[in-house]
Amino acid sequence: MSAFSRFTPLVSVLPSTVPFVGPEAIERQRGLKVEARIGANENGFGPGPSVLTAMREQAGDIWKYNDPENFDLREALAAHLGVTAANIAIGGGIDELLGQIVRLVIEPGMPVVTSLGGYPTFNFHVAGFGGRLVTVPYVNDREDLSGLLDAVKRENAPLVYFANPDNPMGSWWDADRIVAFARALPETCLLVLDEAYSETGPAGSLPSIEALIGLANVVRTRTFSKAYGLAGARVGYAISTPGTALAFDKIRNHFGMNRLATAAALAALKDQAYLAEVVGNIHAARERIASIARANQLSPLPSATNFVAIDAGREGTYARSIVDGLMQHGVFIRMPGVAPLNRCIRVSVGPERDMARFEDALPRVLRLLD
Question: What backbone phi and psi angles, to 5 degrees, belong to 203?
């Protein structure tokens, strides 16, 4: 198969890949139908009725470009968070923002510090801009803040990534420890503090806005994909100092935001009562998943996210067999990608019909493996 001959040297050596294999691809490849979609950390409870109404009401305006300044959404987020609109940058989900952050900071060969087994899309962007990944193993299924700080200083790294609460393990650090980590970083190192699961963590796990807003070398990324149930809409935002946030304007796609997605985000932000209801549903579903795991002699890990990592008690090949076996029953889940985290499977929350299907299929799969 021929290809254009003058791609950049970097692109020429990169693999053609995507960080995740989606359930749609699994259906196509294996001829199976996903009946319970509880693997991609989506929020199966979905957005509120007010959000769907807002999208329907504005669907007729889809012929218009979205406001390239994202004025209304930035103002709404600023009011919600207690900052100014100048502190906010908008992007097509955290994934897009991560790519922009890497582009802002990294040139080929520069070191980038992250955790071994952490969010692979960040790694994908680092590779795409020629960065050199420096990874720090998890300790007790949590990202190792001391190890990350040591690696930053050792490598003189200009960029470090840390997620709290964490994906793929669901673990978390208390706010005071995160603030101390951020303040201990050299001013020449930008911290990407990924807070995709900020709404689902326990009290005390989320640093206040005031605690970090004055640090020019901290960018906090958040999303409407998880608790707000808008993963398909692709709306994320970054919180930082005005100078750091303004840098996104130099490289972002100014017409990249979807008009209906923006309307959905604005409506979702207004409906905090529905958000509270869904967060309660997420917490209950986490307990349901944990109960199913324990009933099958598996060990659920504590979770601050919208999924539960479950220790299957053996090596990664066994966990992979569980993932594949569940798919035979139409249950789509995922697992961490590197040892020792890959001893676990990872199950996202969802409505009762999905939990019931998982509860029915799991013991069937385990019996075949034992």
Answer: -60, 135
Q: Give one DSSP letter per residue of 205-267, joined into a string.
A: SS--HHHHTT-TTEEEEEESSSTT--GGG--EEEE--HHHHHGGGGTS-TT-S-HHHHHHHHH
Kind of pairing between the strands at 111-115 and 344-348: unpaired
Give the amino acid at 145.
Answer: L
Residue from 216, 207, 210 nearest 245 by CA = 216
Peptide bond into 340 cis (omega under 30): yes
SS3 191: strand
- Helix, coil or strand: residue 136: strand
| DSSP structure class, residue 334 | B
97, 236 in Cβ contact below 8 A? yes
Which is nearest to 68 in space by CA: 86, 91, 84?
91
Q: How many other CB atoms sit within 10 Å of the CB of residue 324?
A: 12
User: Rounded to two decimals, what is the model's pTM?
Assistant: 0.96
Residue type, 80: H
Q: What is the CA radius of gyration of the chain?
A: 21
- Sequence-distant (≥ 6) Cβ neighbours of residue 99 within 8 angstroms: 125, 128
Q: How far is 264 from 184, CA to CA, in rounded Å? A: 38
| Pairing relationship of beta strands 88-91 and 236-239 according to DSSP bridges | antiparallel
Tokens 């199966």 found at: 44
Cβ contact 105:113 at 8 Å:
no
| CA atoms of 364 and 325, how far apart (whole Å) | 9
Q: pLDDT of the chain along its 370 residues, tens only? A: 678 888 999 998 898 888 888 999 999 999 999 999 999 999 999 999 999 999 999 999 999 999 999 999 999 999 999 999 999 999 999 999 999 999 999 999 999 999 999 999 999 999 999 999 999 999 999 999 999 999 999 999 999 999 999 999 999 999 999 999 999 999 999 999 999 999 999 999 999 999 999 999 999 999 999 999 999 999 999 999 999 999 999 999 999 999 999 999 999 999 999 999 999 999 999 999 999 999 999 999 999 999 999 999 999 999 999 999 999 999 999 999 999 999 999 999 999 999 999 999 999 999 999 8
Place of tokens 């987020």: 77
- At 272, the amino acid letter reads Q
